Amino acid sequence: MENQSHSQLKQQKLPNQRWLIHPEQSETAKKLAKTLQISPLIAQSLINRDISTIEEAQAFLNPESIKLPSPIQEFPDLEIALNLLQTTISQKKKIAICGDYDADGMTSTALLLRSFKHLGAKVDYAIPSRMQEGYGINERIIEEFYQEEVSLILTVDNGISAYQPIARARELGLNVIITDHHDIPPNLPPANAILNPKLISETSPYRGVAGVGVAYILAVSLAKRLEKLSGLTNLLLELFTLGTIADLAPLTGVNRRWVKRGLQLLPHSQLAGVRALIQISDLKTQEQGNLKETKNQKSLKPDDIGFRLGPRINAVGRIADPQIVIELLTTDDKEVAATRAKQCQEINQTRQELCAEIEQQAIAWCKESQINFEQERVLVVVQPGWHHGVIGIVASRLVERYGVPVFIGSYEEEQEPDADANLATPLGMMLSSSSTTSTIRGSARGIPEFHVFEGLQFCDDLLGKYGGHKAAGGFSLPGENLDKFRSRLSEFAHQCLEIHHLKPLITIDAEAEFKELNFDLDHQIDLLHPCGIENKSPIFWTSNVRVAEQKIVGAGHIKLILIKSEIIKAIAWRWGDYFRLPQLVDIAYKLRKNTFNGETSIELELVGIRLPQKVSGDQNSSNSPQITEFYYSDRHYACSIYQIGDLQELRIRNSRGEVLAIQQGKRIGLLGKSRNDAKEVDVSEPRFFHVIKAAMNALKLRE
Fold first, then answer.
1. Is 238 helix (H, G, I), strand (E, B) or coil?
2. Distances 272 to 99, 269, 328, 342, 603 between C-alpha atoms, Å
3. What is the Cα–Cα distance from 464 to 382, expressed in whole angstroms?
4. Of the candidates 326, 390, 437, 456, which has an alpha carbon nearest to the alpha carbon of residue 130?
5. Which site from 4, 76, 355, 517 is most exposed, i.e. has the minimal number of CB atoms within 10 Å?
């Protein structure tokens, strides 16, 4: 049975994924490809993004060609906000900005500080403490602004749900402008003006802007009115681009248009802080294997911000003082910028260490708890001592690992667990080892079929504060409600999740052959950029690829050489747990360019892998049974079921071309390269029995 266990282990090492391959629209794709002179693969990718006409495709590929409506026509309160700001600035009265501690909130704050100072305003800012106060403007900040004789408060990336604080500001005689992009509550705060894309038409090109997008629209509109836009636009556009991508805003509408411009500005940034951050982030060296030459580079890509600049900004808001980032993005002093960028780098390293530590503890907890995800359909993990600022990142990684919605939390205050308490105990038992009067604070991340905010609403009577949207959320609850919270979430998950949903989803645009993967295709993919939320980088797949070489590199990545008619290199990030990969696989991937020793080549970034689901030639014809491939004891086999009269026959082919044929219910089978020269064998012998069992397991997995 030792060999059998090894075979099962081999199969378990592949990522537990589900593939969604878009149906091929060959005629429409051919028409788009011919008219626009693009690859059919790119045409199919456009169709998958609901772009199927020539006019729609041309507008998407050239967003500057679209005539935008005036923001004043789209945002009902923008005129009121501009009048208030113009009056306050002309009267030399104080303006105070209340921002947020994430990348969107901090870049929004910096953007408005820069623009208002450029326009001659008396302006200051405040950001609430993530750890002590939590998200959004509060009454302490309102009272502080009042004491400082502030005339106008302007919120950025928050405020839409802050009814009581805004009401207090109005009682004190302060004017308030809310700029936010979060969901609209039942009762709007009594602000003088509210700018929120959720309040405008769903068809508006401004609908998807993040907090920094609202701030950008306000700042540019005000500068135009005061005729002081010269020298300001590009600076603000850089900050808009940083915040929009880091906040995972949809790269559609005006976001796509403006981010595309901003990405061209960033390699030669006019902002001292951004230049320092690019330098310390080392965009000229390899990040996840991707060489980025900022010198002579025409444009950054969203991944440069998403994986390099954004995390260094976000890390500060998560575990340190947001003032560091505000100073980084508002200073014109190179030395100050370098100092603040270095702080961002060091804080991000600490954040990475915290995330890695918490992730490993959470994984260990899951293993010890032996959670049955098919039964629970949701993961709720709470431990003392975890940093609230980073558990949301860990939640995302756990979703990627387990394929289920994740609710992760820790206790508000340090507490001493019982001496006998084992931190790797099931949730119900863990409750007894912590004070039932403690408050748990957590973050949640979902999967496509699970609405996080609705899940939290389902637990409304068990929770304190909570909020969020479909994909993510935050919450707090009394420790004594933990067991009920877990049960209630599981009940909600059973209403919307089937067992087949409990696998990470890979959405694939089209099937490609290696001969199609060249520099021309990569250049055409650039036409789809900027890629990100709601405009993902295209993912292709290729069947029956042979893994010629593979090795572990870096922190658990797999570097590969793949063959199918042609040879191509590939990288699989954080796939060390799946090493060694089978020799014959189907792969899903993104294209990437890699430069080494002055030579640039096209490589693949693997995002999905599975055992082959089809074979070439007559074996894949409609008249032939489907072939399933598997590995047993490090050897490659293919198997299928044939109908012989009234009996089914299992046929297993090895790498030498020998076939083992066993008919249903019979102990004697045939082994050979053809039936004419096959010899009879006893299939109950261990050497045959275990291979047959592995084949049957592979066939079941295929079903």
1. helix
2. 22, 8, 8, 13, 34
3. 16
4. 390
5. 76
Find out whether 43 and 30 touch, Cβ atoms under 8 Å: yes
Amino acid 239: pLDDT: 96
Token code pair at residue 112:
């408005």
What's the pLDDT score for residue 277?
Answer: 93
pLDDT digits (tens, 9 = 90+) for 21-39: 998 888 899 999 999 999 9
Residue 389 in 3-state DSSP? coil
pTM: predicted TM-score of the whole model, two decimal places: 0.74
In percent, the amount of the chain with pLDDT more than 90 equals: 57
Instruction: Take residue 222 and report the two structure tokens written for it.
Output: 């005000």
Q: And the tokens for 36?
A: 């626009």
DSSP states of 636-688: EEEEEEEEETTEEEEEEEETTS-EEEEETT-SEEEEESSTTT-EEEETTSHHH
Residue 443 · residue 391 · CB < 8 Å:
yes
Output the CA–CA distances (angstroms, integers) from residue 459 to 79, 162, 427, 455, 678, in the order listed.
41, 22, 17, 7, 65
Residue type, 317: G
Q: Which residues lie below 8 Å from residue 281, measured CB to CB, with a gap of 6+? A: 308, 309, 312, 345
Residue 576 structure tokens: 């060390």
Work out the angle at residue 516's Cα, subtended by the Cα atoms of residues 515 and 517, and round it to the nearest 5 degrees: 95
The pair of structure tokens assigned to 110 is 């910096």
Helices (H), 247-382: 253-265, 272-281, 302-304, 310-319, 323-330, 334-369, 373-376
* Per-residue pLDDT at 119: 96
Contact 490, 379 (CB under 8 A): no
CA-to-CA separations, 434 to 75, 83, 416, 422, 575, in angstroms, rounded:
49, 54, 7, 11, 36
Half-sphere exposure in the Cβ direction for 146 (13 Å, CA): 15
- Residue 413: the pLDDT is 60
What is the reported pLDDT for 424?
A: 31
Of 137, 164, 129, the residue nearest 153 (C-alpha): 137
The tokens for 540 are: 């292709």
- pLDDT, tens digit (0-9, with 9 covering 90-100), for 280-334: 987 653 333 343 444 445 678 777 887 788 889 988 888 888 999 999 999 999 9
Q: What is the mean pLDDT of residues 126-136?
A: 77
Residue in 480, 543, 557 with CA at minimum distance from that of residue 511: 543
Residue 506, beta-bridge partner list? 19
CA 649 to chain centre: 46
β-strand partners of 564 = 566
pLDDT at 297: 56
**How would you list the strands of the sheet with 122-126, edge to edge?**
122-126, 94-98, 150-156, 175-179, 193-195
The tokens describing 176, both together, are 């308030």
- Residue 467 pLDDT exceeds 60: yes
